[in-house]
Amino acid sequence: MPEQLDSTGRGRRGPRGRPDQRREEGTGRTAPQGQTAGIGGRDPQTGGGVLRPRERAPKIRYSLVREIADYDIPVAVACRVLGVSRSGYKDWLGRPTSIRKQSNAELLKLIRAVHAESRLSYGAPRVHAELTLGLGERVNHKRVERLMREAGIQGIYRRKGRRNPVNEPTEEDLVQRAFDAEAPDRLWVTDITEHPTAEGKLYCAAVLDCFSRRIVGHSIDIRQTSELVIDAMAASVTRRKPPAASTVLHSDHGTQYTSWAFGKRLRDAGLLGSMGTVGDCFDNAMMESFWGTMQLELLDTKKWSTRAELAAAVFEWIECWYNPFIRHSSLGMLSPVAFEEQHRTSPSTD
Fold first, then answer.
1. pLDDT at res. 277
2. How far apart are CA 33 and CA 23, in angstroms?
3. Which of 142, 145, 143, 122 is nearest to 134 (CA)?
4. Distances from the Cα of 23 to the Cαs of 2, 29, 220, 228, in angstroms?
5. Neighbouring C-beta atoms of residue 115, cutoff 10 Å
6. For residue 321, what is the DSSP state?
7. For the chain, what is the total number of helices (H) and then of strands (E)?
8. What percent of the residues of the chain are helix, what percent strand, and what percent coil, each to the nearest 5?
9. What is the pLDDT of residues 281-306, one digit of tens each?
10. pLDDT block averages, 10 residues each, the chain of length 350
């Protein structure tokens, strides 16, 4: 290589080429950059770790070490494979949990408790309502939804089905699907449902106040007779004592409700009778919604051995759970009992 002169006039040699730029012996070609000597050598840019080259995320690696160790793989092996030190992993493992994670863990405990107390029926909206309105917690509904989703907690939901065809309304329909009531005991709806047991079917008739969604009376029997619906109506009148000609009792065209005995007791009680369209469940939609909730949260949850067992469960579910505790979005996430109490104590109530 020719000599070069520096600023003082002295001669110096030029920079020596790097080893990878020297010509290979016997080939006359320069060695490619990055090629290692020897057969079977690894490319240093590919790296030998599990993560991508130049990735420096110790928290991620430590988390992977802990997950691998859960499968009975020695920590030393996991640390060597992931390229972290055992001392660093032990130091990370001993650090306290972040405040956010601790808060989420405590909130998840409350969510599980609320979900269990709801008989596993509450979804995220009702759980959030119970946390904020019932327990006074300040929490966003999206956070509740996320924690429930991550923990695999969900409420009971109803699959959507096909709608029935709509028939012409009758002249006796005083409601016209307007189920909004301005005060308690203005509009009642009633209907019958049935459910099988190992001994046979059990029938339940109920009366619901449209103002608060509260079941004001119900009756249970092994036969679907006029006495079944008369007993439910009588229980409602005895409990609420509405003034004469002030309450509408709306039903379908079932034979029990069109019977002479039921009509007479209806007039004797001072109630105003109303009936929806024949064969159209939407003319008694609020009562159908109640039956759907009871079917989902109680009746279909198990096989019932005896009628007595099912009758006791229905009574307990209505009087000890649905009326006093279950929250309704249409009532501002209040229960029927709480909604009526709020109305009763409101200054604007006449």
1. 65
2. 12
3. 122
4. 18, 5, 100, 105
5. 22
6. I
7. 11, 7
8. 40, 15, 45
9. 556 788 889 999 999 999 999 999 99
10. 53 52 47 47 47 56 80 85 84 77 87 86 87 88 90 75 44 66 91 94 95 96 93 95 91 86 91 73 78 93 95 96 93 94 79
With tokens 């996430």, the residue in question is 333
CA distance 50 to 62: 13
Residue 153 pLDDT:
87
pLDDT for 167:
42
Contact, 322 vs 294, CB < 8 A? yes
The number of angstroms, rounded, from the C-alpha of 58 to the middle of its chain's C-alpha atoms is 36
pLDDT value of position 166: 43
Both tokens assigned to 136:
């006074």
221: which strand partners?
203
Q: Are 74 and 68 in contact (CB under 8 A)?
A: no
- DSSP letters along 175-208, please? STT----SSTTSEEEEEEEEEEETTEEEEEEEEE
Six-digit token string for 9: 């006039």
* CB neighbour burial string for 285-313, b if at least 16 within 10 angstroms, e if fewer: ebbbbbbebbebbbbeeeebeebeebbee
Specify the residue for token string 């079941």: 215
Please spell the DSSP secondary structure of 67-101, one letter per residue: HHHTTT--HHHHHHHHT--HHHHHHHHTSPPPHHH
Is 0.70 surpassed by the pTM of this model?
no
Inter-residue contact 211 to 181 (CB < 8 Å): yes
The pLDDT score that the predictor gives to residue 322 is: 95
CATH architecture for residues 187-344: 2-Layer Sandwich (3.30)
First to last CA, the chain: 111
Q: What tokens appear for 278 in the block?
A: 């024949």
By the 8 A CB rule, do 100 and 107 touch? no
The CB density around residue 131, as the number of other CB atoms within 10 Å, is: 20
